[in-house]
Amino acid sequence: GVFMYNHLQQKVRNAEALAQKYKQQQEALSAQLQVVYEHRSRLERSLQKERGEHKKTKEDFLVYKLEAQEALNKEKQDSMNRYGALSSQHKILKNQHEDVKKQLLDLQLQHNSLKLEHRKTLETHSQKYAQLQQEKDSEVTNLQDTVFKLREESKLLRKAHQEVHSQLLSAQTQMEEFRQFKEALQKMPSFK
């Protein structure tokens, strides 16, 4: 009986020690589990914060993209308007240049005709020099005045022609600048 009692007491002590060991293990696991829960909670808060920041960044990017697209469309429209204006101005200047060239040609023909007429008149006056000296001098003076005026008009027309030519060159330069600008726009992917 004593032996059985001692044996049972030994088993009880062993069971209590084992129970104490399991209790410590359970407490350690509970502490570890608490740490894991806290870490998970921090990760979830961090993830929620990252999602909020990502959403805000995405919204900011969409706003920036929309503003950039609007600015590009406005710049494209302005460029097309400027191109149209330059094209119209170029046509007007070209027509003016052609008109001035035609006027200059007509004046040159008229001038040549007057020179020929003047030469014939001088020859006629030379033949009648003895008889019509006074009349010839008067006519020569009048013809010289006419030639002087025509030369002055020719100088003015040449000057006007040079001014129109300069304007045309300036318009061509503007067209070249616009063409380069247009090519630069076309190279941009968003423009296409």
Automatic annotation (TrEMBL):
Question: Coiled-coil ranges per the record?
Answer: 5-60, 90-142
The keyword Nucleotide-binding is annotated on this UniProt entry: no
Q: Read off the InterPro entries from this record.
A: GOLIM4 (IPR042336)
Q: Which GO terms describe its cellular component?
A: Golgi membrane
Q: Which UniProt keywords apply?
A: Coiled coil
**Under which name does UniProt file this protein?**
GOLI4 protein
Q: Which organism is it from?
A: Oreotrochilus melanogaster
